Amino acid sequence: MSDVRLFSGLSNAVSASPEKRQAQWNKALLIFFFLTPGFLLLIMFLVVPIGQAAYYSLYNWNGLGPLDDFIGLDNYARAFGETVFRGAIQHSLFIMVLSLAVQLPLAMTLALILIRGQLRFQRFFRTLFFLPYVFSEIVAAYIWLYVYNPRGGLLNEFLSLFRPEINGTAWLADLDTVLVAIFFVLTWKFFGFHMLLYMAGLQNISREVEDSARVSGANEWQVLRYVTLPMMRSTISLSVFLSILGSFQQFIVVWILTEGGPAFRSELIVTYLYKFGIQRMQLGFGSALAIILFLMTLIFSIGYQRTVLRQTLAE
Amino acid sequence: MRKLRIALMIGLLAIGMVLVSCGGGETTDDTAENTTTEETTAQEDTTSAETDTSDAAADECGEVVEIEWWHISTIEAEQAYWQSKADEFMANNPCVQINITVLENEAFKARLTTVMQSGEPPDIFQSWGGGVLWAYAEAGLLRDISPQLEGEWRDSIAAQSALELFGRDGAYYGVPWQWGAVGIYYNKDLFEQAGLDPESPPATWSEFLAAVQTLKDAGITPITIGEGDKWPGHFWWVYLAIRNGGEQAFLDAFNRDGSFTDAPFVKAGEDLQELIALEPFPEGYLGFTYNDSAAVFGNGEAAMELMGQWHQAVQRDSSEDGAGVANLGWFLFPMVEGGAGNASDVLGGGDGFGIGKDAPDEAVEFVRFLTSAENQTAALEAVGFGPPTTTDAQSAITDPVQQQILEARNAAAYFQLYYDQFLPPAVGGTVNDAVEQIFAGVASPEEAAQQIEDSAALELGD
């Protein structure tokens, strides 16, 4: 908003008295000096690296020596031709869809129970549910590495109480279960964050609105469906936005649990990028992957902000 | 006016802060270095003590020569040994200052790649030779030490095939100091329990498969493997390729006269499938790390494991009682009937020192000092490293298994370095992935060979 005021101020200044003009200039300078450091940082640590990555992505380059093998868009063609990369995109989408379908409703349910259910020990439960989010992702992943351990891990010990034959099942080493097992960890790790967002959103909704709906004869489901949820629209769209971006950028948990294995069945976009671009010293190819990921998230973010977020903010 | 001045000051302050924080990048890097590297306080003490003395000595020698050395021996006894040798060298050469940085294996690889890309390699660093080292050499990041190496130093080395992996086209960029072979470790007690003769392990692939079946029938897990790490599985496939195709098949594929889809490489996958079909591995092995697997072997829960010279120590340290397998045996990978390779051909590798481009002569002298027969003998006695590279230090190996490994290494008609070190990193990684897919049953031998060939065509040329 400041830039708008700045320019209108300047146009006014032309006709204004010298003192006033001076004041306007001071204001402009002030804004300039406040913005410059931020811009410098932005350019140095965001714009320049992206430009560099775009440049490297046109070369076959191992990161050593000069850039002399120009191959145009071959790296991009190669990326989309790789079944492993296409698989990684599918896995990221899978995680994303499950997050939206399972993780967020779960977070919403818990938030509703905690805030509207007038539970005793509300604070205790809130802290308990939020705790996983406070752990660093590395710690969380290592905890689950032990939980999933096929030999004497917590999960198998527990499940074998009911079905003894389950002991020894290696959830993270099985091609069919690995992705779901990872999703479970991600849910455990992140639902608390979304729950907290929803709790904050719920607290902003006045009880009186809900009560008046009840007085008008709405049952609890109708209150939720037609009053509470619509009023939480901006919170929900924010949490959906963060959840989708998070699914595409997930790396640490998957890397520690499986490194994308077995046989690429839990490879996500970023683990693929790290493995094939950095570890295998194909920096040109890795840069192309980074640019693809960047464009995907950028287009999504802009699209989402222009449509969903703008609408909700306007309300 | 006053307002403007204040605004200006604030603005300048902000810009100044940005500049300081950017300019300070190097300093923060250095602090990070000190905290991330596992330099023990004892070492730091000695280093700072050395700095003091060398400051005093600086007057006498004019200028102190500094040597940066990165190694990955994080085990305390090994660290202490290297430090003692550095101290000894510095005592004999008062004008030399050796700075040691100890890094964990994976951290080392990541850091080394970064400093190589910025064109500032350490003077001496851990190297396995082969493709990765050659990539650095090609980019002009390493020092050719062949003038110093020729003659006495070179002649002292028994593992000549290993030395060749540190050089190319007559130039040498480092030397190996310990070098071994990959072979099958086995638990003699479990063999006996299954009714197999523990003193005559299988010599051919079909005998081997029969032994696996016998163990399985006796209710013993025949083989353990840490396939979650992928490289342990690549040993199996590469050994089968070596036995099936011999040196020529590999050289042809590597030099692009042949291809990784040639018959021996497909046959290797088929042989491996035959083994996998017997289901000889513990449940969940696709998710095991090497250390998980070593624990299974060390606890006596599986009869065999294909692994390198370090395995003896690792399975012992990973076992629950800390003692490892009581009756440990070792045999060379069985010969595949009708294969073009020799039964004595060996897959293996070890550790060496690479020399950075700006290394002073003293650094080369120091490496020569470290790899001398006397010091290799001392190292074996003090810490118990793997098979040494110099002829005269070999007698210090007394353990029967290590002696077998040493003999196999020296007797090899063709010594193949691990593919994932010998080949360019991208191809090596693809070999590991492709073999893992055979293990997981999602790729056929042909598909696996094709994946490797595609990557080789991209990196080595068509």
Structure description:
The complex is a heterodimer of chains A (315) and B (462). Chain A has 315 residues and is an all-alpha fold. Chain A has helices spanning 2-15, 18-56, 74-81, 83-116, 122-134, 137-147, 154-162, 178-204, 207-215, 220-231, 233-249, 252-257, 269-279, 283-314. Chain A folds into two domains: 2-56; 74-313, MetI-like (MetI-like fold, Orthogonal Bundle), CATH 1.10.3720. Chain A has 14 helices and no strands. The longest helix of chain A is centred in the first third of the chain and has 39 residues, at 18-56. The two termini of chain A are 19 Å apart. In chain B, helix 14 (290-298) packs across helix 15. Chain B is built from 21 helices and twelve strands.
Describe the protein's topology.
The complex is a heterodimer of chains A (315) and B (462).
Chain A: H1 2-15, H2 18-56, H3 74-81, H4 83-116, H5 122-134, H6 137-147, H7 154-162, H8 178-204, H9 207-215, H10 220-231, H11 233-249, H12 252-257, H13 269-279, H14 283-314
Chain B: H1 2-23, H2 25-36, H3 41-61, E1 65-71, H4 76-92, E2 96-102, H5 105-117, E3 124-127, H6 131-138, H7 146-149, H8 152-155, H9 160-164, E4 167-168, E5 171-172, E6 174-181, E7 183-187, H10 188-193, H11 205-217, E8 221-223, H12 231-254, H13 263-277, H14 290-298, E9 302-307, H15 311-318, E10 328-331, E11 346-355, H16 361-370, H17 373-382, H18 400-411, E12 415-417, H19 419-422, H20 425-440, H21 445-460
Parallel strand pairs in B: 1-2, 1-3, 8-9, 11-12
Antiparallel strand pairs in B: 3-11, 4-5, 6-11, 7-9, 7-10
Helix pairs in contact in B: 12-13, 12-20, 13-21, 14-15, 20-21
The beta-strand count of chain A equals: 0
β-strand number of chain B: 12
So, the CATH homologous superfamily of the largest domain in chain A?
MetI-like
The largest sheet of chain B is: 6 strands, mixed
Keywords:
heterodimer; A: 315 residues; mainly alpha; MetI-like fold; 2 domains; 14 helices; 77% helix; disordered N terminus; B: 462 residues; alpha/beta; 6-stranded mixed β-sheet; 4-stranded mixed β-sheet; 21 helices
